[in-house]
Design brief:
Layout lengths: L6 H28 L7 H42 L1
Helix pairs in contact: 1-2
C-alpha cells in the first residue's frame, strides 16, 4: 500500500505521463499524416504541430511541478500548525 504522503506524488506523475503520451501521440499522428505530401504547405504545418507539442509538453511539465510544490507547501503548513 502506498503511504498517504506519497499518493499525491504518484497521482501527479501518472497524470503527467498520461498527458505526455496523449500529446506525443496526437503530434506524431498529425506529423505522419502531413509528412507524405511534401508540399509547400505541409512543412509549415508540421512545424506548427511540433511547436504545439512542445508548448503542451512544457505546459504539462510546469503544471506538474507546480502541483508538486503545492503538495510540499501544504505538508509544511500542516507540520508548522501541528508544531504550534
Amino acid at each position: 500500500m502506498v503511504a498517504a504522503s506519497e499518493a499525491p506524488h504518484s497521482r501527479i506523475a501518472t497524470q503527467l505521463a498520461s498527458r505526455l503520451v496523449i500529446v506525443f501521440a496526437i503530434g506524431g499522428v498529425c506529423t505522419v499524416i502531413l509528412l507524405p505530401g511534401p508540399t509547400l504547405l505541409s512543412i509549415p504545418l508540421i512545424l506548427v504541430v511540433n511547436l504545439a507539442v512542445l508548448w503542451f509538453t512544457v505546459h504539462s511539465v510546469f503544471a506538474a511541478l507546480n502541483a508538486l510544490l503545492e503538495v510540499k507547501l501544504e505538508r509544511l503548513d500542516r507540520a508548522a500548525k501541528s508544531g504550534d
